[in-house]
Amino acid sequence: MSRELLIREATASDLEAVVALHGADALGAHGDAWTPDSRTDYERAFAAIARHPDHTLYVAEAGGEVLGTFLLSFLPGLTGRGALHAQLRSVQVRADQRSGGIGARLLAFAEAEARRRGAAVMELMSSMRRVDAHRFYERHGYGKTHFGFKKRFGPA
Fold first, then answer.
1. pLDDT digit string (tens) for 88-104?
2. What's this model's pTM, rounded to 2 decimal places?
3. What homologous superfamily does CATH list for 6-139?
4. Domain N-acetyltransferase: where (predicted)?
């Protein structure tokens, strides 16, 4: 990639592009789409993230285009003598930009921020269908240590 990549906190003006990244994700299949009907839902969710000091939505941009995103959250716990856990969620790189180093840059940025905040561990979940993503995370030192379970309470 010849353009300089900037990783920064997302702003409300990034929301449409972030939602488009998630909407283009065939494996995730969350049905995300920026529409007149859904816009207020995404704006409300972003406002909740933005006002909480333990959650930050980030974007990776180059040339004014959003090419990637992730949500970084911090969770206190009692295990590990009260260790702070960082949780990496909703990681996306635009399909035409994958395998170009953006994912590695996002991961390195998130890890540096987690260390800066004093986290003892970084956790992430990845769909069982994302075999390529699993290999990517393993190459970057992440191990498969748990099974994840999910129970839906509504349409989301």
1. 999 999 989 888 999 99
2. 0.91
3. Gcn5-related N-acetyltransferase (GNAT) (3.40.630.30)
4. 5-156
